[in-house]
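User: Could you go from structure to sequence for me? I need the amino acid at each position, not a summary. Structure tokens:
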């Protein structure tokens, strides 16, 4: 980025600042920023670049969207800003680099911005160099963007799924997707909660499409979206009921099997000879209700 650092801080009207690369912010974290500025003021000025306008200068935001939005929330009309010399492309790159540096503030927008850089003529190597990401990662992101795989991209950005697995799923048919999940499990790429999350994502992708429908504050909720939410919650409850029934049937089978074993004299003699006299109290009570003779 070819920019000359500002020599001083200027008070810039907030209404004349344009956010070139907006990000969706976590509401809780945004509230913390607002509360902090309200209590102790702004710790670090935002960074902007000036451009001429018919009725005076305007400004493009380079970094500091959260601080700017906090000032707007507090009703402030001006904000301290460092003014640098940079063109619009440099501002977009600087904003993207800042997002990459804050990788614990993950957002689907970050990966979408990689696609934007590609559309503006940057090569994969350029994007990798300017963002600090690997060329292989950038190439895979661009491939998922071309396929419209927003759900998979979101899963990659939140760390729930390796990008290599996302690429396999994007390229596969239904049987191939299940095979990709199996390979990911066998190679320790998806285990435990991540595997369950991946299965839920695959199911949502199948039922609701590749794109993520964003809900904005103040927006209207359609009857179709309410119906979809109701159907999704109903499906989830039915799945929980089926799992509970399976668990109950298995426990019943185990209890009956143990009850039959303990009615076998040879079995009880083996347990007694091995001095296996102890068992959980709840299991003993349950087996006692079946009439089984316990060692």
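Assistant: Here is the amino acid at each position, in order:
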């Amino acid at each position: 980025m070819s920019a000359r650092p500002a020599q001083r801080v200027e008070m810039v009207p907030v209404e004349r600042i344009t956010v070139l690369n907006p990000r969706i912010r976590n509401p809780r974290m945004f509230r913390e920023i607002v509360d902090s500025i309200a209590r102790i003021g702004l710790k670090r000025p935002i960074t902007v670049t000036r451009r001429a306008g018919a009725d005076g200068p305007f400004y493009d935001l380079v970094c500091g969207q959260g601080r700017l939005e906090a000032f707007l929330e507090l009703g402030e009309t001006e904000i301290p800003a460092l003014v640098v010399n940079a063109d619009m492309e440099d501002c977009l790159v600087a904003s993207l680099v800042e997002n990459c540096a804050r990788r614990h503030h993950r957002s689907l927008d970050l990966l979408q911005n990689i696609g934007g850089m590609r559309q503006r003529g940057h090569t994969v190597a350029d994007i990798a160099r300017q963002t600090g990401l690997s060329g292989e990662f950038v190439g895979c992101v661009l491939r998922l963007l071309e396929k419209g795989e927003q759900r998979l991209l979101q899963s990659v950005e939140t760390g729930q799924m390796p990008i290599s697995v996302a690429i396999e799923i994007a390229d596969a048919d239904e049987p191939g997707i299940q095979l990709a999940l199996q390979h990911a499990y066998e190679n320790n790429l998806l285990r435990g909660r991540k595997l369950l999350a991946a299965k839920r994502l695959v199911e949502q992708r199948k039922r609701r499409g590749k794109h993520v429908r964003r809900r904005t504050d103040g927006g209207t909720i359609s009857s179709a979206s309410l119906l979809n939410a109701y159907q999704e919650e109903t499906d989830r409850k039915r799945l929980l009921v089926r799992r509970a029934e399976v668990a109950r049937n298995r426990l019943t089978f185990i209890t009956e099997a143990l009850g039959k074993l303990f009615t076998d004299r040879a079995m009880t003699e083996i347990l007694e000879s091995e001095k296996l006299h102890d068992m959980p109290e709840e299991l003993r009570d349950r087996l006692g209700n079946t009439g089984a003779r316990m060692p």
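One structural detail worth keeping in mind: Confidence is low (pLDDT under 50) at residues 1-7, 103-107, 215-219.
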